[in-house]
What does this fold into?
Amino acid sequence: MARPSNDPRDFFGPSELALAAGITVRNVQLLRDNGLLPEGNGVPVLKRIAFIGGLLAAGLSLIEAGRAAQALSFEPRSADGEFRSGLGFVARKLPSEFTSNNVEPNDYWCHRWVNEAAEQGIVTYKRRSAMKGDVVIEIADRSRVYLGHVGFDEFELIGEISDWGTPDMTCKAWFDLPEPTEASEAEAKEWRESAVGLSRINISLAIRTALDAIADHRKERLSRA
It folds into this structure.
């Protein structure tokens, strides 16, 4: 399938990263200046900034969201260590003509392949819609962070937030917390179930939505060229 010669592919400029998180280009640079984004302008930074956008929607400030995303972003099953969009599972089922052996099957390419197949009616891809297995985090009472997946009931404590809404806000990830015991796991489960306020962020959907927005932006730009 022919690709435009000026196709930026899985490289994202500052304006596209800003679009992915719903922030300004200046704020993208602010995150970089504070060391809160992965190096480069590839898929990992896009996924991280989409996660930050989700945390902003939960009420964190820009720097707080960047700190929390930096602390919590750890996905050993992902090649880049960032959370996954879930589109890899869909792309694996596509006919070979929609995929390429010449590129790494990262989340950008999986999104592109799935969309191309959807345009031909091979698969169904519904925007702004949760998918089974999506990575979800929940923040209970602005202090404890839990990870789960859409369609599954189990949530595990993966982080703790201190001093929410202050300049001293910190987020400790699971590897900085004490080794869980049966009693502490039961207490953490009860805490989540009895939370007064529970903020939910579908990270996989945030990444897909960011990819959708960038795809639309690029399509519109090419149509004006």
Observations:
- The longest strand covers residues 156-162.
- Residues 203-224 form the longest helix (22 residues).
